[in-house]
Write a structure and sequence with these properties.
mainly alpha, NusB_RsmB_TIM44, RNA-binding, Transcription antitermination protein NusB, transcription regulation
């Protein structure tokens, strides 16, 4: 399958939901992943990217939270679960997928926050991810503002 923007978008959508489920239930990751495959039509989804996000975030959680928690005005645990899942997933992308432009990572997170997050969560997510991008993707951000 050729990876399209919409296939990546679906992968992020499902990964955010799977991370949310993992955060709320503490269920086994492989069981959550299997459940998503059983319950959703994954034919138009970048399944490899979904898997990478889901497992990559949980495997590198301390490093990921360290990269964005310094910009928070509260503890990570005090974030609503949607914002926490989005910040974890997007920070993972910023740190590990330099092939994905930082603006795409932020725009996708903002879109998901608008759809699933509490009122105005998208503004909060945007602000935090701007700061993460400035640090993690400084060369790209500087070139962009150029």
């Amino acid at each position: 399958m050729t990876v399209t923007a919409s296939a990546r978008r679906k992968a992020r959508h499902y990964a955010m939901q799977a991370l949310y489920q993992w955060q709320m239930t503490g269920a086994n990751l492989n069981a959550i992943e299997a459940e998503f495959h059983a319950d959703n039509d994954m034919s138009k989804t970048d399944v490899a990217y979904f898997r990478e996000l889901l497992h990559g975030v949980t495997k590198n959680l301390d490093e990921i939270e360290g990269a964005y928690s310094q910009y928070l005005d509260r503890n990570v645990e005090e974030l609503d679960p949607v914002s926490r899942a989005l910040l974890r997933m997007s920070t993972f992308e910023m740190k590990n997928r330099v092939d994905v432009p930082y603006k795409v990572v932020i725009n996708e997170a903002v879109a998901l926050a608008k759809k699933f997050g509490p009122t105005d969560a998208f503004k909060f997510i945007n602000g935090i991810l701007d700061k993460v991008a400035a640090k993690e993707r400084s060369v790209e951000v500087k070139a962009d503002k150029g």
